[in-house]
Amino acid sequence: MDLAYWQIGAVFIHIPPTRRNHMEKTRQEHMDWCKKRALEYIERGDLENAMTSMFSDLGKHTETAGHPAIQLGMMLKMTGNLRSREEVKKFIEGFN
Length: 96
Description:
By secondary structure, the protein is mainly alpha-helical. It has one domain. About 60% of the residues lie in helices and about 10% in strands. The protein has five helices and two strands. It has helices at about 15-25, 25-45, 45-60, 70-80, 85-95; strands at about 5-10, 10-15. The chain has a two-stranded antiparallel ribbon. Helix 2 (about 25-45) packs antiparallel against helix 3 (about 45-60) and helix 2 packs antiparallel against helix 5. The chain starts with a strand and ends with a helix.
């Protein structure tokens, strides 16, 4: 199957080149890439974008899209349980 298109029934879905690159990685390679990008935000003190980056990047690979920790992370964030740099870093590093 050509990675440029997926077929679902009679519908063909085009996958742009930027998304194709993420799909060619293994699940673990993609997870490591997601964590690296999120941790870069943490190092700059930008906790909000660290979480946003992690959740967004997970959606760019078929094996990590819809990861259950995304919803958990949003709930923890909204209830004030991920406030400090250490808490957010521990949460992101805990993804697998």
